[in-house]
UniProtKB/TrEMBL annotation:
GO terms for biological process: DNA transposition. This is Transposase. It comes from the Bacteria. It comes from Prosthecodimorpha hirschii. GO terms for molecular function: DNA binding; transposase activity. Coiled coil: none annotated.
Amino acid sequence: MGENSTPAHIGILKEHEAGIPVSDLSRKHGVSEASIYKWKARFGGMDVSEAKRLRALEDENSKLKRMLADAMLDNVALKDLLGKKW
């Protein structure tokens, strides 16, 4: 199972909600119990569309953080350049 297969994660969580023990699910799907509990904390109660929206928002947030960091570096470089001229 790939790291980004959110629909599969939610499917496993739905099986758990139906009463299948985590230990059985981990053996069936070849993942650790810790992974299932991590997915439950992150995606518990969501359906696939909500999880995809969450993933899109997280991607957008990381892109905006990178843009902010680049702008701050440019700002520092410009301040250094102007500080040396005057």
